[in-house]
Amino acid sequence: MTGGELLLGQSLFDWLTAYGYFILPVIILLFGPVGGFVAGFLASLDVFNPFAVFGIWVITTTTVDSFLFALGKFGEHLLRKFKRSRKILEKITELENNSENTWVNVLKDHFVKIFFFLKISPTVAISDSLAIVAGVLDIKFSRLYTASFLGQIIWSAVFISFGYYLGGVIQDIKFLINTTGIILGLGFIITLLYIKFLHGYFMSKLSNIFLSIKDLFSKNSS
């Protein structure tokens, strides 16, 4: 009996190996990074193939970004049917036509870098909103897809690896000192260092844009 069968029980293990891949996209959409972490943990128990989990996560999230972009670009007639989204569209148009509005200009000029950073940050709501704004502002889809794809590769790999690492350690403490464990452990340390020393710096540099986007979608915005 494998470690996964022992920890999960035979029935649950068999069910997950048979049907788990079909519900993974839903779990990822509902729970985001937590879902990816759990999927990585289950991959260490041989429930999933970690590379399949990685591929499903990247495809799911980039598809969602593409849909939101298309909604902003081609769905104006639909969005204008709702009072709140109609006001947001009107405000975006006003800001775009205002040459003094620097955050819109910065967003257009540096969209790939900004969206890429958002994809490797715990800011799902902002990145989703920005994908819609990108469509409304007629930013090239290739720019959005490039940033979304590259950012999601990193984000997915980090959380799946953390889950896989934890699952490996739980099953066998020796996993801490084998080659895979050392590599994943170093990745974990690098990620913590990034969060502690660099993430706050980048957030402060882009804070004006983030606050502007939050204000744009705020319920109190007029």
TrEMBL record:
Keywords: Membrane, Transmembrane, Transmembrane helix. It comes from Candidatus Campbellbacteria bacterium CG22_combo_CG10-13_8_21_14_all_36_13. The chain crosses the membrane at residues 20-44, 51-71, 114-137, 144-167, 173-195. This is TVP38/TMEM64 family membrane protein.
